[in-house]
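in:
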């Protein structure tokens, strides 16, 4: 009996030692995980910051490409100046100096109703960029959006920048049921799934509670604890709530869809979005894409000639100039698969204003 007590005590000591060792290992793992997570968050924040800078440079360079002498860079002379349209987001970007003559200002996506300065802006930088009438947006309309991606470099890293008309694709609030079905089939979605998504889009935005054959109405969403207003979509992200929508499909179609357009598709849209335009022919799509690849703006007469007999039906559903909202996709070449997506408002009065940038 006496011999068992030391053995029992030894077992307790060993068990306690094991517990202490396990706790130490657990703490080390937690600390390591926290360190890795913090480093990852820092890297993401750094990439996002650089992505915003790259967007700014690409857009500024684009609008400056067709700049006229009436647009100028106005310097304030003093750092830390502030004014009625103080764009604090400028301070968040570590941008290299801009070439003289770029009609550029950077801020939020919303218009400042209290701005009485006629489009000028000031910030905590030593230069204030001001766009006079017929500035950034007029320049953009003259040259259009580039058909190919732009390569740029910042902080010794290279980025691929793709510019799209954020309101030039398939408008889910304006496109009819067949237009939607045609588009979803063109991107490779099965017929049955394409019909279901189209029915559910139309049911979402109409004002009644009568469901289409594969649609969904208010009661269907209520059972999933989702409230809808039987009104137009406010954003593309609301498509995620559709019963037939999947994450894979959403990622596939997101860049082609839009809200808030005038109902016409921009000729610089994707092949699938362009091919889905009601009444357009395959030969017309090929002609437009071939002409677009050659560079330079496309005139209304050129579009008419390329459409041929399809002009009467497809012509009114197309436009040759981009809208004042651009989607900017930035991909760091050193991080394949990483995409930063932002939307910019481009106006003559306010210049270029970049909104939120999301990592996708």
């Amino acid at each position: 009996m006496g011999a068992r007590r030391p053995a029992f005590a030894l077992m307790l000591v060993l068990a306690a030692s094991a517990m202490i060792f396990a706790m130490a290992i657990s703490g080390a793992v937690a600390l390591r995980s926290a360190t890795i997570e913090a480093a990852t968050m820092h890297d993401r924040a750094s990439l996002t910051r650089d992505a915003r800078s790259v967007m700014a440079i690409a857009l500024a360079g684009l609008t400056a490409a067709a700049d006229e002498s009436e647009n100028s860079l106005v310097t304030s002379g003093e750092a830390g100046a502030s004014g009625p349209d103080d764009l604090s987001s400028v301070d968040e970007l570590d941008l290299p100096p801009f070439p003289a003559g770029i009609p550029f200002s950077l801020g939020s996506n919303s218009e400042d109703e209290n701005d009485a300065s006629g489009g000028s802006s000031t910030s905590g930088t030593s230069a204030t960029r001001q766009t006079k009438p017929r500035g950034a947006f007029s320049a953009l309309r003259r040259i259009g959006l580039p058909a190919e991606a732009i390569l740029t470099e910042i902080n010794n890293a290279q980025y691929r920048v793709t510019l799209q008309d954020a309101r030039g694709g398939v408008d889910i609030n304006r496109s009819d049921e067949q237009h939607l079905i045609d588009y979803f089939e063109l991107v490779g979605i099965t017929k049955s799934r394409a019909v279901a998504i189209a029915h559910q889009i139309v049911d979402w935005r109409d004002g009644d509670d009568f469901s289409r054959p594969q649609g969904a109405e208010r009661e269907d969403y209520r059972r999933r604890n989702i409230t809808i207003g039987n009104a137009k979509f406010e954003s593309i992200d609301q498509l995620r709530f559709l019963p037939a929508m999947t994450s894979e499909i959403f990622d596939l179609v997101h860049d082609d869809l839009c809200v808030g357009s005038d109902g016409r598709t921009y000729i610089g849209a994707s092949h699938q979005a362009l091919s889905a335009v009601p009444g357009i022919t395959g030969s017309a799509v090929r002609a437009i894409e071939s002409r677009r690849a050659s560079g330079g703006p496309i005139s209304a007469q050129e579009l008419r000639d390329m459409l041929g007999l399809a002009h009467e039906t497809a012509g009114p559903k197309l436009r040759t100039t981009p809208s004042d909202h651009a989607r900017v996709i930035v991909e760091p070449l050193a991080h394949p698969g990483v995409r930063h997506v932002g939307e910019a408002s481009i106006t003559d009065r306010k210049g270029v204003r970049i909104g939120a940038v999301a990592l996708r």
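note: The longest strand covers residues 157-165.
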